[in-house]
Amino acid sequence: MTDTANGAPRPGRHLDFGKVAKDLVVTALIATAIFGSTIAFRTVSAAGGLRLEVRYDIAFYVIAAVIVGRLLLWLFFWSKPAGTSAVEVPAGIKSGMAKVSAKVGKGFGPTMLIFALVFPFLPFTDRYLLDLSILILTYVMLGWGLNIVVGLAGLLDLGYVAFYAIGAYSYALLAQYFGFSFWMCLPLAGILAAFWGIILGFPVLRLRGDYLAIVTLAFGEIIRIVLLNWYQFTGGPDGLSGIPRPSFFGLPFTRREGGFSDFFGLDYSSFHRIVFMYFLILALALLTNFVTNRLRRLPIGRAWEALREDEIACRSLGLNTASVKLTAFAIGGMFAGFAGSFFATRQGFISPESFTFIESALILAIVVLGGMGSQVGVVIASIAMIGGFEIFREAEQFRMLIFGLAMVVIMIWRPRGLISTRIPSIFLREKKAVSADMVAQGEGH
Amino acid sequence: MTHTVNDPVLTVEHLNMRFGGLLAVDDLSFDVDRRDITALIGPNGAGKTTVFNCITGFYKPTEGRITARHEDVASFLLERMDDFKIPKIAKVARTFQNIRLFGGMTVLENLMVGQHNPLMIASNYTFGGIFGLSGYKRAEKEAVELAKYWMEQTGLTARADDAAGDLPYGDQRKLEIARAMCTKPKLLCLDEPAAGLNPRESEELNKLLLFIRKERDTGVLLIEHDMNVVMGISDHIIVLDYGKKIADGTPEEIRNDPSVIAAYLGVADEEVEEVEHEIEEGASS
Questions:
Q1: I need a surface site. Which of A118, A151, B79, B121 has the fewest CB within 10 A?
Q2: Of the ranges A61-65, A194-198, A331-335, A388-392, which one carries the lowest mean pLDDT score?
Q3: β strands within chain B, DSSP E
Q4: In this predicted model, what pLDDT tens digit does every residue of A333-361 receive, in sequence order?
Q5: Torsion angles phi and psi, residue A251, rounded to 5
Q6: Burial annotation B231-261 (CB, 10 A radius, 16+ → b, else e)
Q7: B126: contact with A, CB 8 A cutoff
Q8: B192-206, pLDDT tens digit by residue?
Q9: Which residues in chain B (208-247) have CB-CB distances under 8 A to chain A?
Q10: Residue A1 Cα distances to A23, A77, A83, angstroms
Q11: DSSP E strand stretches across B167-218
Q12: Which of B146, B161, B166, B182 best tests the A interface by mutation, with the highest count of A CBs <10 A?
């Protein structure tokens, strides 16, 4: 294994040419099947309708590149003794990555925090980057919230976006019907989402594995469909608009007198509100992180992790697993509720369109990609997923392809997520990270 | 049948457990003394683990009564309690035949989960703990001290910060016992604690169980196949066969009981002498 890390083949290495040739032929066929249809033909709008443009040459180069690449892999990476798996990552790289991720884990958090605090004031920060980072931070917060349910308690929740929707609609409806301000609605939205977390928790108490996942998925859809069809109350597909913006301790972000800019003697700029939004979501996300880290060191957090490891052992030690599960759903839901009311106030308009299953899948992907239970992993995964989505906006229809490919590669490279080790909640002499092989994944994975 | 139980921590009366057409436990009654190590033995499939699961609430018995008694005359009807309330309120803890540790958590964390209920109260059901009130910090420190005590008794102190899943098999068995002891039980039920242990580890286990009996006010009920453990440390043995109790007494009595020998050798009672004779002849030749 270790000798493959050096790259160049050494004498005595066995390379079966018949096998390689066969593999290359198969590669060529697959590449032709994929790129022959997608690249060789292209429709161009011309006068009087669509015209088919034929690009055999480009397709040929792409297919040739794939074959040459595969040949290079055979020559330099896969030419090792028979019996070892072809897709194994070289051990040198593997252990190197483990060291890097251990170091990254220590210094990464504080560095990121400082960067996040000064980010709005950096010279290159423009409106677009700030909006993007608000979006990323929203997903960081949602990822951290879902991490409690999936990463710590090990309960696979495919309907997490329901709590996000409940938070958003709680704020929008309370503001619309009762004229409550953002700061009043924020805790109420959290409490309501936690309450619905418990409502979801009861029917799934006895469920395990795939059945748990299916019911949570259904819950997410039920909430969305109710919001869509209860036209008189929620506005249905038209959504709710004119959701009030938050104020800075009573100072609204307006041009008028008594506004934020007037009070501080600044020139009015719409940028102020965006910066305020940025710090608001940063504070909410940090609150989520702080509370989660705190809970992990309390008996309830240890009970969540114990539940993920072995439910029957929990019961044999006198843990009421029903209440352990319900608290996980409630607290996870609460943070989604906070994030939801932030989303509502940022957008000013919400509709059930924003709370589809794909959102749940995206948040879950962030948690899984980051490494279940890892707080830093969620941050990296959010930046990679949401930021990556933006970077590849140029690639248009290939965006999803690139994205899917990247995820497959990451999952082969690190099957338990980017940061897969578990940090113990308490230690006697030294804090040793627990390897992912030991950590159970819980129900529904 | 001369073993007398003066101060029962557990009384099982007329226990029946039926799975469909199979009567796994048939009208079983026995007592477990607070100061004894009581062993439940019998051939494979005799219903020992079923009895355990009834006592610890994992099964609800078809018929019968199971009573746990504390020194202060408080008594609990276990067949009516939820499984998680049995260790919490009636103070009956158990281990499993196939070890059930929290493999991804460290040894210390495993022992802390064992003390979940008192810590939960100390943290005011999380509300006090989240604001870092001193009451919780003190309680946590005490919990760590208790965990340290049991790590010392089981020889796991050096591995306190290692993942439980990383421990060798024998240490995992000991950790499971230590974790059960962290719930401060009145009765400790061990399901085959010596299974898979080498002779040295099994000797250490004997010492640990004798220590638990001597130092702690905890009764021990164990299922075991390892006769070295059973005969070496138990004060009272109950023998099951096909769900029925066939013998109940001191190790000496059990050793010489023809019906026990018959059950283990798989022959009828009247053939026992014949078989014994054959064995002796076989040994001498």
A1: A118
A2: A388-392
A3: 8-19, 22-33, 37-41, 63-69, 75-77, 92-94, 187-191, 219-223, 236-241, 244-249
A4: 999 999 999 999 999 899 999 999 989 99
A5: -100, 115
A6: bebbebbbbbbebbbbbbbebebbeebeebb
A7: yes
A8: 998 888 889 988 999
A9: none
A10: 22, 10, 11
A11: 187-191
A12: B161
Q: Which residue of B has its CA nearest to A302?
A: B113
Q: Does B189 touch chain A (CB under 8 A)?
A: no
pLDDT of residue A5: 44
First to last CA, chain A: 30
Q: Closest partner residue to A428 among B104, B108, B183, by Cβ? A: B108
Cβ <8 Å between B96 and A427: no
By C-alpha distance, the chain A residue nearest B151 is A428
Strands (E) in B55-119, as ranges, are: 63-69, 75-77, 92-94
Domains located in chain B, CATH noted: 1-91+187-285 (3.40.50.300), 99-183 (3.40.50.300)
Rounded to two decimals, the ipTM of the complex is: 0.88
- Give the angle subtended at the CA of A78 by the CAs of A75 and A84, to the nearest 5°: 155
pLDDT tens for each residue of A206-245: 888 889 999 999 999 999 999 999 999 888 899 898 888 8
- Average the pLDDT over B147-176 and give the result: 92
Domains and CATH numbers, chain A: 2-88 (no CATH), 94-413 (1.10.3470)
pLDDT tens, residue by residue, A125-172: 888 899 999 999 999 999 999 999 999 999 999 999 999 999 999 999
Q: Which two tokens stand for residue B216?
A: 């702690």
Range in A433-437, B85-89, B140-144, B154-158 with the lowest mean pLDDT? A433-437
Best CA proximity match to B90, nearest among B103, B79, B101, B106: B79
Q: Tell me which residue in A302, A310, A432 faces B161 most closely, judged by beta carbons.
A: A432
With an 8 Å Cβ cutoff, are B162 and A432 in contact? yes
Q: Which chain A residues touch B100 with a CB distance below 8 Å?
A: 310, 312-313, 316
Report if pTM > 0.90.
Answer: no
Are the beta carbons of B109 and A302 closer than 8 angstroms? yes
Closest chain A CA to residue B165: A438
- DSSP letter at B126 equals T
Higher pLDDT, B274 or A40: A40
Give how far A299 is from chain B: nearest CA, Å: 6
- At position A194, the amino acid (one-letter code) is A
Compute the distance between CA of residue A57 and CA of residue B150 in angstroms, rounded to an integer: 74
Measured between alpha carbons, how far is residue A188 from residues A61, A170, A192, B108 in Å?
A: 59, 8, 6, 38
Residue A1 has pLDDT above 50, yes or no: no
Residue B285: is its pLDDT beyond 60?
no
Contact with chain A for residue B133, Cβ under 8 A: no
Q: pLDDT: is B212 or B132 the higher one?
A: B212
pLDDT (tens digit, 9 = 90+) per residue, B54-86? Answer: 999 999 999 999 999 998 888 899 888 888 899
Q: Which residue of A has its CA nearest to B96?
A: A313
